[in-house]
């Protein structure tokens, strides 16, 4: 198996294949340092944690993770708790994606199986017949290639035009994300809709807070000195309760990320399978990207196992449809959360609809349960 990309999709797949005795080579264009430091999302679904733990990848995760049993929706200056565990019996875990990647890289290197960093010029050929990967002047003949190389990778563009149907929506806003060296101001995540736009309070540890602000997609980072970021977060996360305030502190990292929904169908071309961000992107409002990548490779590892054990391609042939059923459920949830919580065009009518939806979500057990079930993740 040739696996392009050492993000969560590529590395989890490589490990699940290793456990089944299936050989793979993983090719990553960045250095190990780069992928282990890159700040990304940080919420793991219940099923993701179970899968990583069952695969022997959960040792540090189990020790260091923050288990959350609820989240808050904040609007009209009041916070409303959604008791995730109370409604679903399952919880979520806060643990940075780059920490997951560190654990996965260590596990891969411990197997002694190949993982090449800083490779350049990866090209794919023979995808319908005998796939070959070329990189750095070397040639790798594979039974199958798995494109786990994210949205900007080489795998999806290697498929001839017209062979995949693309579904896409680009949102008219982006997230300015900051990592701050300050204790979280609340024990749980806070998703806030404010007249001035969306804000999110999250965390990485008892001493590191992760925060996001809705901004314009073309927002220059230079327009956001620390004082303005804290001021805007303070405004959007403010509550009527005078006892609550946002604790500020040194900002360690900042970036602006665009928001899009994107799906290709099928997630396969001949002997190339696409998994994770290479096949689909969700806006970050439901924290689903990593979880969806893990769900894909679980399906793929089981299908490959069945193929090598029996010679039967039935599960491999079902890979795309099996994954896309979950992908579209998650796309809907992420779009719904995004639409409910972001301000568009200062439109007062839309704002009233959003507030109405939020009031319904926090007051109806059925609506809250629907949010909670999707947030903790449908069973893998
Ligand atoms: N050759 C080799 N590696 C590549 C190439 C290439 N041409 N192009 C991209 N890559 C690597 C990237 O450097 C990255 O390390 O593929 C990896 C893809 O990893 P991710 O982008 O993390 O994607 P994925 O593993 O699908 O995980 C999805 O990551 O982007 C977040 O929010 C997303 O949480 C989601 C998760
Ligand atoms: C994060 O902690 O980075 C995070 C949390 C929740 C989201 C997105 C990102 O919806």
Structural class: alpha+beta
Mean pLDDT: 97
Largest sheet, if any? 8 strands, mixed
- Outline the low-pLDDT stretches: none
- Whole-Å distance between the termini? 23 Å
Q: Tell me, briefly, the overall form.
A: globular
Order of strands across the biggest sheet?
A: 6-5-14-15-16-13-17-20
Number of strands: 20
Write the topology of this structure.
Elements: E1 2-4, H1 8-19, E2 25-27, H2 32-37, E3 43-44, H3 46-54, H4 59-64, E4 66-68, E5 71-75, E6 78-82, H5 84-88, E7 92-94, H6 97-111, E8 115-116, E9 123-125, E10 132-135, E11 138-141, E12 145-147, E13 165-180, E14 189-194, E15 197-205, E16 208-215, H7 226-236, E17 251-265, E18 268-269, E19 272-274, E20 280-281, H8 289-310, H9 314-341, H10 348-363, H11 365-376
Parallel strand pairs: 1-2, 1-12, 2-8, 5-14, 12-19
Antiparallel strand pairs: 3-7, 4-7, 5-6, 9-10, 10-11, 13-16, 13-17, 14-15, 15-16, 17-20, 18-19
Helix pairs in contact: 1-6, 1-8, 8-9, 10-11
The chain binds adenosine-5-diphosphoribose (APR) and P-hydroxybenzoic acid.
Quick summary:
The protein is of the alpha+beta class and 380 residues long.
Keywords summarizing the entry:
380 residues; globular; 11 helices; 6-stranded mixed sheet; binds P-hydroxybenzoic acid; alpha+beta
Structure description:
- With 380 residues, the protein is of the alpha+beta class.
- Helices cover 37% and strands 27% of the residues.
- Helix 1 (8-19) runs parallel beside helix 6 (97-111) and helix 8 (289-310) runs antiparallel to helix 9.
- The chain is globular and about 65 Å long.
- The mean pLDDT is 97.
- Bound molecules: adenosine-5-diphosphoribose and P-hydroxybenzoic acid.
């Amino acid at each position: 198996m040739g696996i392009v990309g050492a993000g969560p999709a590529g590395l989890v797949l490589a490990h699940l294949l290793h456990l089944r005795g299936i050989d793979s080579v993983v090719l990553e264009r960045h250095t190990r340092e780069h992928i282990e430091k890159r700040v990304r999302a940080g919420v793991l679904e219940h099923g993701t944690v179970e899968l990583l733990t069952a695969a022997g990848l959960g040792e540090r995760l189990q020790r260091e993770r923050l288990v959350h049993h609820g989240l808050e929706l904040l609007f009209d200056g009041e916070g409303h708790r959604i008791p995730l565990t109370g409604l679903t019996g399952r919880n979520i875990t806060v643990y940075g994606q780059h920490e997951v990647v560190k654990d996965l890289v260590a596990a891969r290197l411990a197997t002694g199986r190949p993982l090449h960093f800083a490779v350049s010029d990866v090209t794919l050929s023979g995808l319908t017949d005998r796939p070959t990967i070329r990189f750095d002047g070397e040639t790798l003949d594979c039974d199958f290639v798995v494109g786990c190389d994210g949205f900007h990778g080489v795998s999806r563009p290697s498929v001839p035009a017209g062979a995949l149907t693309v579904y896409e929506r680009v949102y008219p806003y982006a997230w300015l994300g900051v990592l701050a060296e300050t204790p979280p101001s609340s024990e749980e995540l806070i998703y806030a809709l404010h007249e001035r736009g969306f804000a999110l309070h999250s965390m990485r540890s008892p001493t590191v807070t992760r925060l996001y602000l809705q901004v314009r997609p073309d927002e220059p980072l230079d327009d956001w000195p620390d004082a303005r970021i804290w001021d805007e977060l303070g405004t959007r996360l403010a509550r009527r309760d005078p006892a609550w305030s946002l604790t500020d502190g040194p900002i360690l990292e900042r970036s602006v990320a665009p928001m899009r929904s994107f799906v290709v169908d099928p997630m396969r071309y001949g002997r190339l399978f696409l998994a994770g961000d290479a096949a689909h992107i969700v806006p970050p409002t439901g924290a689903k990207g990593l979880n969806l990548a893990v769900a894909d490779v679980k399906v793929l590892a089981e299908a490959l196992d069945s193929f090598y054990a029996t010679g039967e391609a039935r599960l491999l042939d079902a890979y795309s449809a099996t994954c896309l059923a979950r992908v579209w459920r998650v796309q809907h949830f992420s779009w719904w959360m995004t639409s409910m919580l972001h301000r568009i065009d200062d439109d007062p009518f839309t704002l009233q609809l959003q507030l109405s939806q939020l009031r319904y979500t926090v007051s109806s057990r059925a609506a809250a349960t629907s949010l909670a079930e999707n947030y903790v993740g449908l069973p893998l």
